[in-house]
Specification:
The complex is a heterodimer. Chain A is mainly α. Helices cover 71% and strands 0% of the residues of chain A. The longest helix of chain B has 4 residues. Classes of the chains: A mainly alpha, B mainly alpha. At the A-B interface, helix 1, helix 3 and helix 7 of A face helix 1 of B. Chain A: Keywords: Endoplasmic reticulum, ER-Golgi transport, Membrane, Protein transport, Receptor, Transmembrane, Transmembrane helix, Transport. Chain A: It comes from Spinacia oleracea (Spinach).
Amino acid sequence: MNLFRLAGDMTHLFSIIVLLLKIHATKSCSGISLKTQELYVIVFLTRYLDLFTRFVSLYNTVMKIVFIGTSFAIVWYMRYHKVVKQTYNKDEDTFKHYFLLLPCFVLALLLHNEFTTMDVLWTFSLYLEAVAILPQLVLLQQSRNIDNLTGNYVFFLGAYRGLYVLNWIYRYFLQDHRARWIPWISGLVQTALYADFFYYYILSWKKHEKLKLPA
Amino acid sequence: DDGFSGKDEL
């Protein structure tokens, strides 16, 4: 594992910690899209089906369990915690997330490495992860007030896949020279979807102003 | 093997 991959994983983990901290400490999930969070549960469950059949390293196993566990915890908080659920911006979280599920699944049926249940679902999870942020970005655009923790959460979540792209470049040129098109293309699309957000996030950070996305 | 497809990543 190279430093970019580790930095990517840590950034991903950190984004989740920031989100859980916001929810737990402020007892509020305002500005957070439940649809995006539910998509992440599906992403992790379909990607880590191999949790008990394929052992890569203790690090991988622990991280997989953490990602599955925390994604369930976030959804539980937003749906069932009696205080937190009242802060959910239900009327603004309007993105039809099931419209993402079907195309990603069809694409995974068409473009995959091996036609096996495990591999098609793994491929599906990569396609779905690439677009899972869309409901969250739409919600942010509709929010007048984006609090710092929410802004930071989305920033670190986007930065994680960007660091993975650097990891892939490093692996390809300096380690094994193997092309992994499915994660690469998905990861590039995923990172590109954040471009607009990154622009306004960095702008607001430079000007010491509150983050606001143009509608 | 797993490294070939990228399944050794998260």
